[in-house]
Amino acid sequence: MLSEKIAVVDIETTGNAYKRGDRIIQIAVVLIEDMQIIRTYSSFVNPMQPISPFITELTGIRDQDVKDAPSFETIAPDILDMLKGAVFVAHNIQFDLPFLNGELTQAGFMSFSGPAWDTVELSRAIMPEAGSFKLGDLTENLSVDHDRPHQADSDARATAELLLKLHKKVMNLPLLTVEQLTGQAVFLKSDLELFFKACADEKKKNLSDLPPHMEVFRGIALKKKEFFPEKELTFNKDIEDFIDQLVPGYQKRKTQLHMIHDILEGFNTGRHTIIEAGTGVGKTLGIIIPALQKAAEGSRVLISTQTLQQQDQLFYTADKMNHLLDHALRTTILKGRSNYIHMLKFEQSLSDKDSQYDTVLAKMQILTWLTETETGDIDELNLSGGSLLYWNRIRHSGWYLEKNNDPWAERDFYSHSLLKAEKSHIVITNHAMLAADKLKETQAFPHYDYLLLDEAHHIEDACRKQWGIKLDYMNVKFAINRLSGNHEDGIAEKVSKLLNKHAIECRSLDVETWERLNQETDLSFYQLSHYFKTHVKRQKGLQKHSLLLEDLQSDWNTIKYSFERLLSELKNCMKILSEQLEKLRKKKSSLNTQEKAVIEDAGSLLQEIEKLVTTIRLLFIKNNDHYVKWIEGDLRSVPGSITMVANELDLSYSIRRAFFTKQPAAAVSATLTVNHSFDHFIRTAGLDERRLILKQYGSPFDYKNHVKLMVPSDLPDIKSVSPEEYVEWITGHIAVIAEATAGRMLVLFTSHEMLRNTYELIKESQQMEDFVLIAQGISAGSRTKLSKNFRKFDKAVLFGTSSFWEGLDIPGEDLSCLVMVRLPFSPPDEPLVKAQWNHARLENKNPFQEVSLPKAVLRFRQGFGRLIRHENDRGIFMVFDRRLINASYGHAFTDSIPEMTVEEKSLDECIEDIEQWL
């Protein structure tokens, strides 16, 4: 098959719907024989219709390029001649092949019906750690020339080169892995089992030993685990000289050196240090170097940050330092147990006859990944949403049977990560993992002497998320379906077969018990949904609603009794499953590995059911005045979207106990103060100001001369017009400003509803036809993917909410204008905010000043921080909310960012200024 003809095809079209009249405007074919490119063909095609500005912006193909080009009918015989007897290959075959076949049929020719390979599927299986499977990202990753993305000739050539690189990668995999991939590929959408079989056949002709870094264990090929070299760490260098060696062309930053000194002073005197370090201070090294200093003295330092990306950045910096330290610094990233694969469960799942697409693709990705990974950490994998359900089955949840009963114990990734952490000088984690670990009776994190909290303004939210209690319909149903007593793949049936095989007498989880549990689940959540729909205050245009449960109505008792019945059924199932597993545990010496894997799977389900029992008890049975409870959901899809939540009202005592009692800690962030005061953070963390070192270091950037802050005077007050009218106003403003800035604009919203309505109105009105509009929650992809796409296009506008207010790094001319649609106050009817307001009133405090304003100011500062990322950046900061100038509290926002003039002008004057400024 690999020696035969392969035709790699790419097409550009007027749109993505052939059936709605879109047509091909360019086609390219690259022919491969014996895995060598032998010929390329490319032609523009006259689509007999105009090309839209969006397609021209995307592809660079204009109407004049195709005006004199041949029609598709003219070139169809040439295309068919190239495809004759070939394997058809494309990057996203689900688009190219049906579209091309549509054109062929319409032109009166036979459609192509031979074998087809999709390089998107192949890349997913063979490059499971790639951040994106877009052609441009993959070619960049593999250093393939791809000079004109979205032009068919360049894309077809790049796809052909990608295929050759992927083939080479497969040929370097162990034969065992390639054969396992062949078996799984039968269930893929394209005919890749032919590709893998051909690769396996080719490998069999030249069999070779496994490379020394690999091994085969229990029928799975994997990379051997490595430990740190044991060297003595010394650090007696001058800090400035060390940074200079580390960062070529380093410009001395006094504030960075002060920050390092402050953290060390806190550590040495046993005090907590709270530091605000503005953009450009050099926070990463300011954190890592004190950790290194203490590590060289024989201490262990734990660093916690907010995101996985920031974790990697800290690890990368420590690794870079290690090159100057004779590789004596031992640093590791540590995550929670459920982040790691449980190999026994994975091995067992490979023998399951599961043809579900996402599961098959996940198995293939993991088989490849195991030949490369040293960590077994899911965050290295790019799994689809559907594949994550499969991951939940094979992730680590501890051992139900003793660890020494698991044949994989010595090769267990989670145990290996704990061992590495024990031997490390610096351990890096994230706030969510650290907060979750603090809840456990036996904590996984090794003892540490000093704690460094990066992005410390996130601590409260991370703890709230981890320490809060949640119960949602979909998760309960998922657990019950895993149990599913009437299905042979269900845990109940598998355990029952085991009991019969080993002649163990025990109560069984029969179909009736499972159905009763299922019915009680549906009934409880339907009644909770009815209560929610009856009592919630509906707001026009809002999809997600929430209902604070402060004053419970008389019909709440019906809900309570219903969940008591569900609790009773769950406890009954839990008891039966527990008894069954206990009896099987006693027979562990006579169980084979496959049977042990079934018990481990059942043991983790038992843990889930135990957790559900505890959660239901806390939410519906126990009374706890410290907790705020609410229901949230989408009224259009209940009970599916229904979630019941409980959160502690005041976390300050718990935060202090978890992070600021046993050892000295340093909390660092670019946004910790409100109007130059640390009061809000100190109160949130339950700290005593008298025992703290408090330092604030402003950004070294020249904001006064590099940023223009404007508030358009001709926008209405948001409260004086309807939401629809306000969206019309801002849409007009955005369109005019985008013209003046030539795109390169980030628009921040406080509500996804307003973002969506603005985006749709702009699309509908065609006011910004020449621009590429990228919108969070509407355009496909993660935040990183969307910001990458934004940087790719010259005339792009990025609409963001929630997570886009911080952590987005778009330096230089890629971002010239930041628009903030509203001041970022949390909605007053948000359950937690509402409860905090009520609590503040009870304590005779001003709820607005105490609760809402500090959080809004910090969010405002985070949003503002997106604009200037490097010292030479310049930009326009446009705030559409006139409360910044008119409200008595407006100065709280302007006083919290670097000093600059606030200009209130009409839109025309603003545009004039922008054009001159940029």
UniProtKB/TrEMBL annotation:
Matches recorded under NCBIfam families: dinG_rel, dnaq, PRK08074.1
Gene: dinG
Pfam families from the UniProt entry: DEAD, Helicase_C_2, RNase_T
Organism, as annotated: Jeotgalibacillus alimentarius
Catalytic activity: ATP + H2O = ADP + phosphate + H(+)
Entry cofactors: [4Fe-4S] cluster
Coiled-coil boundaries: 567-601
The protein's name: 3'-5' exonuclease DinG
Keyword set, alphabetical order: ATP-binding, Coiled coil, Exonuclease, Hydrolase, Nuclease, Nucleotide-binding
Matching InterPro entries: ATP-dep_Helicase_C, DEAD/DEAH_box_helicase_dom, DinG, DinG/Rad3-like, DnaQ, Helic_SF1/SF2_ATP-bd_DinG/Rad3, Helicase_ATP-bd, P-loop_NTPase
Record motif DEAH box, residues: 454-457
GO BP terms in the entry: DNA replication
Record GO terms (molecular function): 3'-5' exonuclease activity; 5'-3' DNA helicase activity; ATP binding; ATP hydrolysis activity; DNA binding; DNA-directed DNA polymerase activity
Family: Belongs to the helicase family. DinG subfamily. Type 2 sub-subfamily.
Record-listed ATP binding positions: A277, G278, T279, G280, V281, G282, K283, T284
EC number: 3.1.-.-
Enzyme kind, highest EC tier: hydrolase
Helicase ATP-binding domain: residues covered: 242-502
Function: 3'-5' exonuclease.
